[in-house]
Amino acid sequence: ESLTEWEELFSSIMSSWNIDDEVRLLRQKGELHSALCLNLAYAEDLSAADMKAVMSTAHLIRVHEMLDEEVDGESPENTMHPKVIVGKRHIIEAFKRTRPSLLPEDRQKLQRYYQPFRADVISNSGSGQDRDAPASNRNNLKTSFR
């Protein structure tokens, strides 16, 4: 998948979490990968489940911070159930702790399995690939039986 697809997927996953303004701005600009995954080449190989795990880990990192602040007496008053807001540093740390759940060989195998369902497949060719299609069209999934 392309970086654009990666951005869209992670942005979608992130939408169900409370994030701070800095991360929200990165999300709006489409700069999540460049800001959060610098020097983490394996981040592009994370599955959707792995990305969900990143956000869960980031959330837990923030919860632990909040608990530590409460013990140290830094907790805001009258907040029985404070809102957990995940920040950039929490997500970066979570990416560092998360590894792809699929081995590269398994990922390639799955890509081969899904190849017949991609938009570039021509049913009459029998080869499963349309070598004349532009590269940008070769990664689109079919959306109908035509």
UniProtKB/TrEMBL annotation:
Q: Where is the composition biased (Polar residues)?
A: 136-146
From the UniProt entry, list the residue stretches annotated as the region Disordered.
121-146
Q: Which organism is it from?
A: Skeletonema marinoi
Gene3D superfamilies in the cross-refs: 1.10.8.60
Name it: Uncharacterized protein
Q: Report the domain of life of the source organism.
A: Eukaryota
